[in-house]
Amino acid sequence: MPASLPDHARTVIIGGGSIGCNTAYHLTTLGHSDVVVLEQGQLTSGTTWHAAGLIVAGLLTSESDCAIYTHGRDLYARLEEETGLPTGFRDVGYLQVATNPERTHEMRRGAAFMRRFGIDCHEITPAEAQEMFPIGDLGNVESAFYIPEDGRANPVDLTMSLAKGARMRGARIFEGVRVSEILAANGAATGVRCADGRTITAENVVICGGMWSRQLGAAHGITLPLQAAEHYYLITEPIPDLPRDLPVLEDPSTYTYYREEVGGLMLGLFEPGAAPWNPGAIPDDFQFGEITPDWDRVGPHLERAYSRVPRAMEYGVKKLFCGPESFTPDLAPLVGPTPELRGCWTACGLNSVGILTGAGIGNVLAHWINDGLPPVDVTGINVNRFARSEATPAFRRDRTPELLGKLFGQHFPDEAPKTARNVRRSVLHDRLAAAGAYFTESHGWELPDWFAPTPEQAKIEQHSWFRQHWWDWHADEHRAAREDVIVMDMSAMACFQVEGPHACALLSRLSCNEVDVEPGRVVYTAWVNEAGGFEADLTVTRLAPDRFMVVVGENSRGHTEMRLRRHIAEGEFVTVTDMTAGRCQINLHGPKSRELLSRISDADLSNAAFPFMSAHRIDVGYADVLAMRVTFIGELGWELHVPATQAVQTYDLILEAGRDLGLRNAGMQTLNSLRLEKAYRDFGVDLDNTDNPIEAGLGFAVRLDKPGGFIGRDALAAISARGTPCTRMLQFLLSDPEPLLYGNELIYLDGAQVGTIQAGGYGHTLGGAVGIGFAECDAPLTAEAIEAGRWQVEVAGVRHDATASLKPLYDPGMEKVRA
């Protein structure tokens, strides 16, 4: 029995692998020295010990991903000097190859984005790549990309070095101590109980248990949807003259990475059709363990892997290794405070890149614990983004086989998962399918992406970065919204009823805008943190003096609910009820929407009786409906919140009434193109927790003089007091109608790189690709400076002239919205 366990620690970390030791290391660098790490076996004995140790950037698609990666690479390069223990880090370089034009296009986009954030990814010729990787057969390679600073490390040595660094600053690490229970009281973690009965009280409990994290969390009602899968690599016998500093090669066409290993070659597989491992539970005593390889299943994948290095087949197989790695449903880690238990944090589900991202994730979590706020955008990795349905055994079994291949293969915009679908469906799903809907997926919801003329045509044979076969159908939906009328099923929007004697006080405290309004008013508002960074953007509708409705995008459901519940003050009485499943949100938009709605309702829909940003209960056929006159597309329109039991009848009534008005169903592609023409913002897509409403152009929704203030008021007041910002969110329209924008394209002002497009689409009304993004300059970005400058946007290495604007390029005066 390990001796000398303390009775108390400020922070207890469960798990002594890469992420646990990284979290301890980074907490201690912040002066947070009272840290205890508990490892049930030996350090690295879970999955860290058999990791490949690749320190390679891959294809990063967010600023926070780049920050997480570069922090780790830089730390690993200097850690040995600090601790005196070797890490095995060698900057041997990193090659990615493309074998088709689509992958080349993807890489050119990604390389430019990564260079902006300090990752020197640049294109080289296939001949240059062949010279760098002489054992490979690169005959079918069309292009290649190289990062000279990337490389590899020894995972065990690296983790031991991190552990020493943490100990040097006061952390205590105990091996052979299994945590059997997270202690809790009044909804907050208070410490841990070990399997031998000993307890440690703590202010913070951090779950860094790798593939064991899910079952530990589940025992305490915490949702951690991750699943272990079989992960293979093969090591050949030594190959004569194989360079020790051979660069790491990644090849999406074979779903394989290649690197030197003790004179031989390692072939690491990320194959499609992977196998989940132990969906029920991971054995506690599985330490330094291996899984018996399934030769029949992996044989074809190995054959494809060898096709890139056929010379390697002349040498024997030294080892075919199979070990478990844990993966999450969207291939992003689970990081942050758990919604279910205050004082409980997690960093797990690192998707086979725990060595690569461990330092960056550990740094983010350490700052979050120590400072109260994360140092980077965490909207894509926040543990609160998932629902319990995505942690069920059936979901994990079905989704996991797709994940390894998706992690390593070629990527396309708007490509949705193919497995574990139909988790959440609107009651209108069958109607929409019969109308020709092609469904995408978001946070478990089936969403109509676009509509084909017939159900049989609603399919994609091959995704592309360029115009696809559904382009014209989507354009027709867009034009119908601008010229006639569209109907959209927006039932995935999360809807919360917030009521009680202190409901107004809670929402006023959270909201930048004034929500203490008369019943029947809809208020658009941001929620921000103490530093002024976004936590949500949403609508708050006052239904009665003590009752409100909060409506937010499906991507923010978990975060919004967590923020609501966590900010109910002691002594306040407020109930928060998720109403999403009980109602269907049907949106009507377009210049003919009033005419259509008036045909099926006796309500007075005039501007005087039903002005913009108001809500009333109205009749729609037999249904009693809460109607809100709001828009996310920039046209006259209403959100109809219909009881789920009457939604199908209401939808059918709308279709019949709009038949002669040019009514069309419209999907998410059209929603995106319409809202970007109007420059409407979307938290979690083009806004994140490092942005603020002042620089994002949403100052109109911030009431700095609001009685009682709000969370983040002082930070926003300080930003506003500086005058015209040097960083501003602008709308961009490409002059050339051919290129497409998706996000992450670089922005140039007078030849200087000043920012990136956050989100892009095609403005069928404006006549070109349109996007919104932040421009960061040394001087204030006044309207005059924006008008005078020459703006360009780079798409796959080519710069295109663009119009930049502070105001929406479509209907800047809001005449259509208020019609």
TrEMBL record:
Molecular-function GO terms, alphabetical: oxidoreductase activity
Protein name listed in UniProt: FAD-dependent oxidoreductase
The keyword Oxidoreductase is annotated on this UniProt entry: yes
Residue ranges constituting the FAD dependent oxidoreductase central domain according to the UniProt record: 371-426
Domain of life of the source: Bacteria
Domain GCVT N-terminal: 428-706
Record-stated family: Belongs to the GcvT family.
Domain FAD dependent oxidoreductase: 11-368
Organism: Roseovarius spongiae
Domain Aminomethyltransferase C-terminal: start-end pairs: 728-811
Keywords tagged on the record: Oxidoreductase
Pfam family, one: GCV_T
